[in-house]
Amino acid sequence: MSNETKRDVFKDLVEELANAYIALDGEGIGEDFTNEDKQAYLKDYEDALPDDLPVIPKAQSDWIKQCKANDDSLSFALGDETTPVEVAKTFRVLGGYTDKNKDKWLKLQNDFARAWVLGIWRVEETGEIVKLEEEK
Q: Are the C-beta atoms of residues 65 and 38 closer than 8 Å to each other?
């Protein structure tokens, strides 16, 4: 396993591509690949959405939006006493929490928490991407 980020890999790829075009252009083949082109690609990549957005049910999506609008905490949003029934159902695993379904139960909770922290997620039922406004 590598410690490189996707961005590191992409930078290396763009550099290699730039070198390849320069070599080809020197022989009269290919087009110029300028530093401005390279910087534009890097900016596009930086601005792009993550590849692995959390996917959560619509009930969770609506709950996150409501809690964030009220400045509630993540622990409040996950609390048994405060979570609406339709949202709480999305955290449950058929048969209750057992060693057999622990991974699924944890994934449901982790996906919600990742969506909360990132402020962006995909709605499971519709495929819609929800992006909360950044705090000012």
A: no
pLDDT digit string (tens) for 41-77?
788 877 777 778 899 999 999 999 999 999 999 989 9
Separation between Cα atoms, residue 32 and residue 18, nearest integer Å: 8
Alpha-carbon dihedral 122, 124, 127, 131, rounded to 10 degrees: -20
pLDDT tens-digit readout, 74-98 = 989 988 677 888 888 877 755 666 7
- The dihedrals phi and psi of 95, each to the nearest 5 degrees, come to 95, 0
Read off the tokens for 119.
Answer: 């402020």
Rounded-to-integer distance, Cα 94 and Cα 105, Å: 10
124 neighbors 132 (Cβ within 8 angstroms): no
Quote the pTM value: 0.67
